[in-house]
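Quick one, tokens below. Sequence please?
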């Protein structure tokens, strides 16, 4: 389960690129800017004798400009029953805001009609207040194989991810059937992305799939939870999304679903002695608007 959950660290990087790059690149898709807002409903911590709860609101902005990528994520936490939480000082919120910013490069191309490649690298910082010892890096790459006669595309590669708490190597495995921009059914199956899309028309489509989220943040120097320590958040669930193409370059995505496997893990300043706390399942929604140029 830990391996599956930790695979979610690169879901956001693969969600947009996988269905496009295993097929022909559409006109005007070399660069893209997207903004997103999200909300996860209030849910209790699943710890015996502790009935504190949390909800999460936030936003994200990411840019792809040629080979260059940039991303910023903001999370705001709303707490209830802080005196009944299994961590913190019992009086103040464990944390209120978390931030993550990243810059990197990403590129894929086809050598021929059937064979291609992809690679990317990124450096990031994820923190509550201070940025010291909050850095991370990741790199990934591999090969693309297309079977145009069968409307199939394959990806096979590997990812290396490092942060102040841990490092890991994971496989990248993906199969895409049909371009999701074409009317009818299309599908993506793999690690970590699985989704099925049905396009009604050039404007409207519906998509069902898995939803992942995972990050590691450096906590504040005066954190009531773990001063100068670290927080790892992990969520896994499913969602249904409505996709609307407003124009050739402007797209809207409205999604809702539920996280059914959630946890928080708190580490000391050395990234050791992790204490994991499960969270009850919770509903979530998100809205994203992207423009290609």
């Amino acid at each position: 389960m830990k391996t599956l959950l930790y695979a979610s660290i690169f879901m956001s990087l693969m969600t947009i690129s996988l269905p496009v790059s295993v097929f022909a690149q559409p006109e005007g898709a070399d660069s893209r800017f997207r903004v997103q807002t999200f909300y996860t409903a209030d849910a209790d911590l699943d710890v015996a004798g502790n009935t504190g709860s949390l909800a999460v609101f936030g936003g994200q902005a990411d840019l792809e400009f040629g080979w260059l990528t940039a991303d910023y994520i903001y999370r705001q936490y709303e707490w209830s029953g802080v005196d009944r939480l299994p961590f913190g000082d019992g009086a103040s919120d464990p944390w209120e805001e978390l931030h993550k910013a990243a810059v990197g490069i990403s590129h894929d191309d086809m050598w021929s009609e059937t064979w291609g490649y992809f690679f990317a690298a990124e450096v990031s910082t994820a923190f509550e207040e201070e940025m010291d010892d909050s850095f991370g890096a990741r790199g990934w790459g591999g090969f693309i194989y297309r079977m145009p006669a069968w409307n199939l595309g394959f990806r096979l590669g590997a990812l290396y991810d490092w942060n102040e708490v841990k490092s890991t190597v994971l496989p990248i495995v993906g199969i895409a059937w049909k371009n999701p921009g074409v009317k009818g059914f299309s599908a993506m199956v793999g690690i970590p992305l699985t989704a099925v899309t049905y396009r009604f028309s050039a404007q409207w489509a519906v998509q069902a799939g898995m939803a992942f989220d995972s990050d590691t943040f450096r906590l504040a120097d005066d954190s009531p939870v773990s001063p100068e320590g670290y927080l790892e958040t992990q969520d896994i669930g499913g969602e249904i999304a409505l996709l609307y193409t407003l124009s050739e370059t402007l797209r809207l995505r409205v999604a809702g679903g539920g996280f059914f496997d959630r946890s928080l893990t708190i580490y000391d300043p050395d990234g050791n002695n992790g204490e994991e706390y499960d969270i009850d399942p919770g509903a979530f929604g998100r809205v994203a608007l992207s423009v290609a140029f």
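The chain has one domain: 2-292. The CA atoms of residues 55 and 78 lie 5 Å apart.
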